[in-house]
Structures are given as C-alpha cells and as structure tokens.
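Forgive a beginner's question, but might I ask you for the amino acids of a protein and the tokens describing how it folds?
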Amino acid sequence: MNLLRYAGFRSGIAVCCLLFTSLLACSPTTPGSSSVPQVAYVGELGVRDGGFLSGEPCGPPCFWGIVPGETTEAEAIQILKAVLGGVFEKCTVYNYEPRGIGCFRPNLGIEFRKGTDIVDGVGFRPSDRITLEDVIAKHGEPDALYATADGIPSTPRQ
C-alpha cells in the first residue's frame, strides 16, 4: 500500500514538472530576450495594425516586440531584420540627433533616447484600417493627441 502511494506521489511530481515546463515554453517574448516574436509582415500586408488593436504579437506601447524605454538599438535592429527580412536593407539608420531608423516601405520610424541606445518612440502607418471608434472602444477616450504635418510617422531629418 505504501508503495502505491509513493508511486502516485512520484507520478504527480512528474506531471507537475511537465506542466511547468510546458508553461515556460509558452511564455511571451520580453524585451532583452533573444527570441524574436512571430509577426505577420509579408510585403502587401505591411505593418497591419502594429498590435495597436489586435495585441499581436504585443499591445501598446509594444510594437512587434519593441518596447520604448526598454528595448535597445541592437535588439530593435534584430527584430526588424527578422520581421522585415530583406526589406530592412532599404531602411535608413540615422546617426545624428535624433538618432533613429526610418523605413519608408513599410512606413515606420524608430527614435532612440538622446545619448543612449534605448528606443524612445515608435511611429508607423498602419496598413489595416483603424477608425477612431475602434481606438476608443479598445483604449478609451484619449487624453492627448499628436499630429504631424505630413501625416506619417516622424523620422529624423538632416
């Protein structure tokens, strides 16, 4: 009888270990990790909603696994290269203040915090239609607005 209890206890521990390992395998990508999130970017699909409404692969302020204030320049470049593939080669890296990366197809810009290699902000033109009603339904009433003269993300200029 004691032998059966011991065998049941060992089986329970094995099941718990298996569940714990499975949960670790499903953990989301976090800034600073070496894994790159899976993002739907294939030519014509463009940026989609950038996760702004869908939360895929992450939601605001995260964009494709890039989190302002946390992600480094090297990590952002690694993510962009993985997601954009050869399209990244057409992006421009600006090494003057404000430093950043500008990709005009897709329309997206990343700026780095002055004097650091930390992402300060991400801007993009979504290829999916996003209405003001969608934004309010998902995120609530805005407390601020940002507008640019040309309607596309701010990118560093000389």
Observations:
- Residues 1-34, 153-158 have pLDDT under 50 and may be disordered.
- DSSP finds three helices and four strands in the chain.
